[in-house]
């Protein structure tokens, strides 16, 4: 194992500021009334089409509490790629991952679902993949040199186990941050399998705006954070890879302790976008990751001057508008199996009808081989007799030139 994950842990991979949410115990919808982000993103308008049913969002994080009332029945069996650290019931267990899962797919609780947290896609399923430890976990030092490949392995595992969306509310933006070949390859693998990959852009806006990985890998939807007024959050990293923005300040989050807190960070912003992608995917299941990424950027609201900026990407994600725009799109045609090696087959490739023959089929190849052999015989005889330059009959020469693409 390398120490890549350990470095990420050391620089607060999953850090999110937490403060106890002001209580509103007199009202059943007190928590949901404070979820300003849902209105800002026009989520309820998108719900007129879908709430994400049938879509699986993998949450690669610190784990997810499948017993939380706001997530009950929606968390699938997951994978622990860390293998040590805090366990269920301990304070340093699954806090960050549960918070992100709630933003993505919380369905509330109570008789009418009016209590607790509502996520962007409350009908989506969560696939938890534990790849990091909480900041407060006593075993973080132990992890620094033992679980370097967890993130790359987690991305591949999620892609192989049905993830339609992969949420990466984590990243390394330390001074030593650099691309890891295994992680990059894992991201490309997931994209090829049809999973949309979303990552937080980084919380280094006040510390030099250093590049953050995995946000900077090609094909990733990198998300920056804004406040309730649509302004860039001061902590949000500004970089060329920014794709779209989403709420990341004063965000209501669920916790395994069954209480609710306010969180901040591009971690939360990424979760809002993953939930938005789940809605778009549910409405248009045939669209590719590239098409969905394009939809989000084309339909983003409050676009910055010039259509894009390092601070906000293309603007604030708008799942309702993306769903509507997707109605006119057709899924990208699937490439044939031989696309990466166009010369692997003769003729039209493995899908060519049996018994059909054309000018590039195997029958003509046999004919051309025979003609080439005849030409070589003529050349040999000519040289043996010393009869001067080879003279190939015009008909034979025409067939040879045609056969070799002249």
UniProtKB/TrEMBL annotation:
Keywords: Cell membrane, Hydrolase, Membrane, Protease, Serine protease, Signal, Transmembrane, Transmembrane helix. It is a single-pass membrane protein. PROSITE patterns: SUBTILASE, SUBTILASE_ASP. One of its GO terms (cellular component) is plasma membrane. Residues 52-315 form the Peptidase S8/S53 domain. Residues 1-28 form the signal peptide. SUPFAM superfamilies: Subtilisin-like. Belongs to the peptidase S8 family. Pfam families: Peptidase_S8. InterPro entries: Peptidase_S8/S53_dom (IPR000209), Peptidase_S8/S53_dom_sf (IPR036852), Peptidase_S8_Asp-AS (IPR023827), Peptidase_S8_subtilisin-like (IPR050131), Peptidase_S8_subtilisin-rel (IPR015500), T7SS_pept_S8A_mycosin (IPR023834). The keyword Amino-acid biosynthesis does not apply. It is found in: Cell membrane. This is Type VII secretion-associated serine protease.
């Amino acid at each position: 194992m390398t120490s890549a994950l350990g470095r990420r842990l050391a620089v607060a991979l999953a850090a999110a500021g937490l403060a106890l949410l002001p209580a509103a115990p007199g009202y059943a919808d007190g928590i949901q009334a404070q979820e300003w982000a849902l209105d800002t993103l026009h989520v309820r308008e998108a719900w007129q089409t879908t709430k994400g049913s049938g879509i699986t969002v993998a949450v690669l994080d610190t784990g997810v509490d499948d017993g939380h009332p706001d997530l009950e029945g929606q968390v699938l069996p997951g994978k622990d790629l860390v293998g040590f650290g805090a366990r269920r019931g301990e304070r340093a267990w699954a806090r960050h991952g549960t918070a992100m899962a709630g933003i993505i797919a919380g369905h509330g609780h109570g008789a009418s679902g009016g209590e607790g947290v509502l996520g962007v896609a409350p009908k989506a399923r969560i696939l938890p993949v534990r790849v990091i430890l909480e900041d407060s976990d006593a075993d973080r030092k132990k992890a620094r040199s033992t679980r370097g490949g967890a993130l790359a392995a987690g991305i591949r595992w999620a892609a192989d186990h049905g993830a339609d969306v992969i949420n990466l509310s984590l990243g390394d933006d330390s001074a030593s941050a650099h691309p890891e070949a295994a992680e990059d390859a894992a991201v490309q693998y997931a994209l090829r399998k049809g999973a949309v990959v979303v990552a937080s852009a980084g919380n280094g806006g006040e510390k030099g705006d250093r590049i953050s990985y995995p946000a900077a890998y090609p094909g990733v939807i990198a998300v920056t954070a804004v406040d309730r007024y649509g302004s860039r959050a001061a902590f949000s990293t500004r970089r060329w890879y920014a794709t779209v923005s989403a709420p990341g300040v004063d965000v209501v989050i669920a916790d395994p302790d069954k209480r609710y807190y306010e969180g901040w960070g591009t971690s939360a912003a990424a979760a809002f976008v993953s939930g938005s992608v789940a809605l778009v995917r549910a409405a248009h299941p045939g669209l590719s990751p590239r098409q969905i990424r394009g939809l989000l950027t084309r339909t983003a609201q409050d676009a910055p001057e010039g259509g894009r900026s390092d601070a906000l990407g293309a603007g604030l994600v708008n799942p309702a508008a993306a769903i509507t725009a997707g109605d006119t799109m057709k899924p990208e045609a699937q490439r044939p199996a031989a696309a990466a090696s166009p010369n692997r087959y003769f003729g039209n490739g493995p899908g060519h009808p049996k018994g059909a023959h054309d000018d590039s089929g195997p029958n003509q190849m046999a004919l051309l081989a025979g003609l080439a052999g005849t030409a070589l015989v003529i050349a040999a005889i000519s040289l043996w007799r010393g009869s001067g330059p080879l003279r190939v009959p015009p008909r034979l020469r025409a067939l040879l030139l045609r056969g070799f693409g002249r």
